[in-house]
Amino acid sequence: MEIQAGDIDMIDSASISTISHFIGPAAYSRAGARAKNGVVEISTKSPDRTTPTSPLFVLDGRQIPPQLARVLDPAKIRSIGIVKGAAALPYGDRGRGGVVLIYRKVG
């Protein structure tokens, strides 16, 4: 999955399996024109357990892939909240399985 550069510091270093850097044609083959400055590819370790439902994950107001939520650094999280049922209605169908709201510490 692709993440934004600003979210990279939220990955718990203990969950990283490998890091690779690609430039030139190798980067282009992975990400196309977006890779003009290169690609950093981070592989994370497999989670120990799976989540039985499929909630929507939201980090600082932006939807994120569930895989990113599993490798966030706990030391950088300010709060986590969960909304279900009627409280999740503003998120539409994406929030049917509940919504996990994650907020980063500032500073």
Q: Radius of gyration, rounded?
A: 16 Å
Q: Low-confidence runs (pLDDT<50, min 5 residues)?
A: none
Average residue-wise pLDDT: 86
Number of structural units classed as domains: 1
Level of helix content? 10-25%
The helix/strand order is EHEEEHEE
Envelope shape = globular
Sheet of most strands? 4 strands, mixed
Number of strands: 6
What portion of residues belong to β-strands? Answer: 25-35%
**Structure classification:** mainly beta
Separation of termini?
Answer: 27 Å
| Sequence of strands across the biggest β-sheet | 4-3-6-5
List the total number of helices.
2
Please describe the topology of this protein:
Layout: E1 16-22, H1 25-31, E2 39-44, E3 56-59, E4 62-64, H2 66-70, E5 77-83, E6 99-104
Parallel strand pairs: 3-6
Antiparallel strand pairs: 1-2, 3-4, 5-6
What can you tell me about this protein's structure?
The structure is a single chain. The chain has 107 residues and is mainly beta. It has one domain (5-104). It has helices spanning 25-31, 66-70, and strands at 16-22, 39-44, 56-59, 62-64, 77-83, 99-104. Strands 4-3-6-5 form a 4-stranded mixed β-sheet. A hairpin with a 2-residue loop joins strand 3 and strand 4. The longest helix is centred in the first third of the chain and has 7 residues, at 25-31. The chain is globular and about 50 Å long. The mean pLDDT is 86.
